[in-house]
Structure formats: C-alpha cells, structure tokens
Amino acid sequence: MSAPSVTHCCTTLVLGSGVAGLTYALRAAQHGPVLILTKKFRSDSSTNRAQGGLAAVLSPTDSFDLHVADTLEAGAGLCRRDVVELVVREGPALVRSLTDLGATFEHTEDDSDGLDLGLEGGHSRRRIVHSKDRTGQEIESTLLSAVAKHPDITLLEHHLALDLWVGADGAERRADRRCYGASFLDQETGAIGLVRSDQTMLSTGGCGKVYRYTTNPDIATADGVAMAARAGCSLGNMEMIQFHPTCLHHADAKSFLISEAVRGEGAVLRNVAGEEFMKDRHPLGSLAPRDVVAREIDRETKRRGDKFVLLDVSSIGEDRFRERFPAIAARLETYGIVAGREPIPVVPAAHYMCGGVVVDLNGRTEIGDLFASGEVAFTGVHGANRLASNSLLEASVLAERAGAVEPQSPEGPEPPPPPPPGTDPPRPDQGVILDHEWDAVRSLMMNYMGLVRSQGRLDRAITRLEEMREWSEDLYRTSAPSSDLAELRNLSLAGVIMARAARAREESRGLHTRLDFPETDPVPRESWCRLGEGGVEVTLRPLES
Question: Among residues 27, 174, 270, 290, which one is catalytic?
C-alpha cells in the first residue's frame, strides 16, 4: 500500500474521547479547529466506567497537605511531590469548572454541608466528589455535551489511530523532532487516512486488555503507549500496573468493578470461611491502599485454595446500598446477587496503568507538538500505586494545562508520513490465529506479569512476547489492515515494555512485587524505557523530586 495522503487538516488532533481528551479539546479549541478521533463510540472510555468519583479538598476538616500526604503514602516513595502538589491544589477549581459545565454531584440530604463527600481506600478524610456510583458517566456526558455544542470541534467515531506522524528517524535528538499528526483506520470503510495537525494529544487511555482479567473496557489496548514508543518517546514506570482488589467474580460477568467506595461506606473483606482477614494485615483493614488489598486477596486465595473472597456489605444494608450504589445494585441483581442480603464474590483484576508516556507539567512529551494526558501519560503523580479517585483529577488538570499551550506553525518541509499497513488479503485461518495470539498475550501477562513476579516468570514472558511482537509487526506490514491486528501489534509491544521494566526493577515496591527481591531499595528510582534498534532499552533513574 502506498503512503497515505492527507485526508484531514486541523490545528489540534485529539486521539481518544475520555475525560483527558475532551477536557483538552474544549480548552485547545481557543487556538483553532479541533478534530477528535475515537476508536469506538464516543462514550466508550474508562472515564465512563468510573464509579467512585474525583478526589478534591472541599471539606473544612481536610487540607491540601493531607491530600498530598495520602497520595505520597499510597505511591510508595515514587511520587514526584511537586507534581502531586500542583494537581491536588487544582482539585476544587476543577470541581467548580465541571459544575459550571452542567455536571451534577451528590449533596448532603439537607445540603447544609454542601457536597456529599465519600471515603475510599488510602484517604484520611472524606474527599470523594461523586454522582452516586455513576460519577464517570456524569462527567463524560457533561463533557461530550459541551464538545457537541462547540462549533470548532469535530468528533469522528470508529477511527482507530495507527501511528504518529513524526520527523525522520535520523534526527540526532528527540527534541529536534516534532509530530505532524497521525495515520488512522476508518473501521467502517477500511480506508487508511492521515491527519495533518499543528498539535497532537494522546489521550488513548490505558492497557488493561493486556491482561486476561481486567476492569477496563475493550478499547484499552495500549494504543497510545505503543504509538509513542514507535515514535521514539520515553515511557516511565511501565511495570506499575494497579490491580483493583474487587472485581466481581461470576461466570457470566465481564470486567465488572465493585467500587472502592463500597468499602468506604463500611463493607469489609472476608475469606470464604467468613474470616475478616484484612483487619490483622494493615492498620486500615479493608480500606488499605489498593496494592496492599489486592496482594492480600491474592495471598489469601492461594493460602486457602479458593477462587475468590467475599465483600461483606451487610453493615451497609440492602436499602442504603441501593440508594448509594444504584447502578452496582442493579447490575448485581442481574446475576442473582442482592447486595445487603448476601456477600459479593470478588477477585483482583488489572485496573490502571500508573506509568506511561513521559510528559512535563504541561503535558508535553519529548517530541515537539506531541502531548499526552490521562492514563496514557506518566507525570509522576501516582508513583508506585495510584491513590483512589486521583485519576480523573490528574487527567483533567494536565489536560487543562496542555490545552493552554499555544500551537506553533512548523517550519521546513514535512517528513514522509508513517509507513502504512500492507495490502495482502487475510488468509483463511487468520482470524483464528489472531484470536489465539490475543489470548496468548493476555494469559502470559496474567500468569507471569501479574500481582507477583520473579526473574524466571519475567524471562519467560519476555521471550514469548518478543516473538509475538515481531510476528504481529510483520503481519501488519503485509496484511490488509484490521482493528484486531492493529491492537495485537500494540498489545504485544506494550507487554514487552512492561515485562522488561519489571525485569529491570530488582526490588518490591508498591504495585511491583518480586519473589526474588522482596525488599524495597532505599533509593527510589523510576524506570525509563525506550524502543531502540536493538529492542526495548530500560534504565533506572533516581527520583527527580
């Protein structure tokens, strides 16, 4: 297939339609026309699934210092304090901004104390702004409504970004390279297109589908980190994958999360025998930080030989549960579970990528005119473990800051567009093979790069994932494009990066547990990965702040 020609021109290109992409688009539209490409429907995002809420200091008994301290504690020594402080202090203004756009959050019954603030694991105060258990849906719909009304923003659904359009690979320094846009696959027509833009924002979300068990939507196939890696960006702390402790365990359920806010309202974790095992393992019991709770659930199930543990919500009661968590209650009832009458079976599942594409405080990557925000970006806020409900906060704050950066018109000739996929028609068995390789990647990651790791497991994962990466890249370059193939190409590359970062970190810290290195290194260091000619290169750097 010949190189694609430019099919769309805009001042700003946004890849993804979650809270980060939509927030950025609304701010960046002041500079000129914005084009948003999203791979599925516009509301398909992790934002739309966020149940708990958004953390912000709004209570007179709370403070910025307490929120910062809680974030640093959860991050296990790897948070960048200056970034944490910046993000935390923007929380109240962010809530006001969303309210001004039309978002509705829960208030106390008599409204005397303002917002009804929830409590989640790792937080020392009630500071979770919520819309019952549909907070992400409320924020997403509010932002989508604002985008739809904006005359300078266009949103195209079913457009899967393939590769970033960047300067020639021969540039001596990444700082000398810039991004001119991206190529994409129109999934409805099968056509390959090319967007020419002055600025490009990666807001493609996370990588949960790298794992067999995840709370993430099907779109979370690591597209952004893979595109950025191929373009030459550095990736930070990619081994730090947060497993949410409480994903519903049911044969008919797919990726259904039981919000941490349920434990904030009084639910406790018990093993199948009814024992409250967390109370003796952490001072906060069932409200300990997510990395602690997920590991203890994993340990308890393996110790007893059980497949799950139980979330006991009897202290909340059936009526209160339905009032506070209506969406969760309704979904549970479809599986025959009446919350309040009986416990909820739960297991840990891959939930959030704490690492990502390295950016500065304005969302800039190492490549000129390329930005990243949201789960795809690495800012240093989350460290080795994200504090609950800090994700919507961080994504929005960084997107707002990035959107304020005024675009600069490039000088000189444009580089060649990114190489296109191939043209060969699919082989008769290609669909079966792709399904098998998808399952193989996700099983490898779950078994060898899950909650507990070791050198032997990681070496095995790296060997197999490298084979899959090379195979999928070769097939992509020869075969007619498809979303399954493009996503497998991204998943296998992201898996290699994650496993190599985990192999390089010879310690246990936060979300990263090594059986062969159980102690924590006294010197906190970030892992930085780059895709070079010889493959993925990993260096460990002392924490900057």
Answer: 290
Which residues does residue 186 pair with via DSSP β-bridges, in sequence order?
Answer: 159
Alpha-carbon distance 543 to 527, whole Å? 10
Burial 388-408 (b: 16+ CB within 10 A, else e): bbbbbbbbbbbbbbbbebeee
541 is catalytic: no
Question: How far is residue 509's CA from residue 496's CA, in Å, rounded to a whole number?
Answer: 20
CA-closest candidate to residue 365, choices 481, 523, 202: 202
- Reduced to 3 states (helix: H, G, I; strand: E, B; else coil), residue 344 is strand
How is residue 68 written in tokens?
């910062």
- The string of pLDDT tens digits covering residues 43-64 is 555 555 555 689 999 999 999 9
Please check whether residue 343 is in contact with residue 312, taking contact to mean a CB–CB distance below 8 angstroms: yes
Distance between CA atoms of residues 72 and 83, nearest Å:
11
Two structure tokens written together for 371? 């930005």
Per residue in 432-458, pLDDT tens? 888 999 999 999 998 899 999 999 999
245-271: buried (b, 16+ CB within 10 Å) or exposed (e) per residue? Answer: bbbbbbeeeebbbbbbbbbbbbbbbbb
Q: What angle do CA 259, 73, 388 make, to 5 degrees?
A: 15
Whether 219 contacts 205, CB under 8 Å: yes
| Token pair in block for residue 378 | 């690495």
What is the distance between the alpha carbons of residues 476 and 1, in angstroms, rounded to a whole number? 12
